[in-house]
Every structure is written in C-alpha cells, then in structure tokens.
Amino acid sequence: MITHHYGTDNIPRKDVKPGAFVKYKDRTYLASANVSKGLYINNVYEKTLIRSDEIEVYLNQYGKPLMRNGDI
C-alpha cells in the first residue's frame, strides 16, 4: 500500500511508463513493461498482464502518475 498519494486516475495503457504505481483489483502494483499485447505489472507476490485499454494509476502532488523513483 502507498501511504502518500493524491488520488487515482484512469489513463490510456499506452501512456503508462515503467515504474508507475498501478491500482488493479484493489491492490497496488508496479508497472514493469508496456508492450503491444498489454501492460506487465508486478508486486512482491505476483506478476500479471493487463490487457485493458484504461489503467488506474496513483497520482503524485502534481497530478501525474506516481513513479517509484520519484520522477515527475
């Protein structure tokens, strides 16, 4: 779970970058690779592939996707 975020937003899958925090099925994942067949996400326990066109991402204080390394 992420302690500091500023809500979530649905964005197109093609705009999700590796390192972004993703909310999927009420769990938090980290985006790892965005390929033509889907978005690979993972957490400590599992890895999965999302094929939907809209992805729910956590937002930082600037309204952009929250990244693992703190990039804006």
From TrEMBL:
Any Gene Ontology biological process: cell division
Keywords from the named record: Cell cycle, Cell division
Protein's name according to its UniProt entry: Cell division protein FtsZ
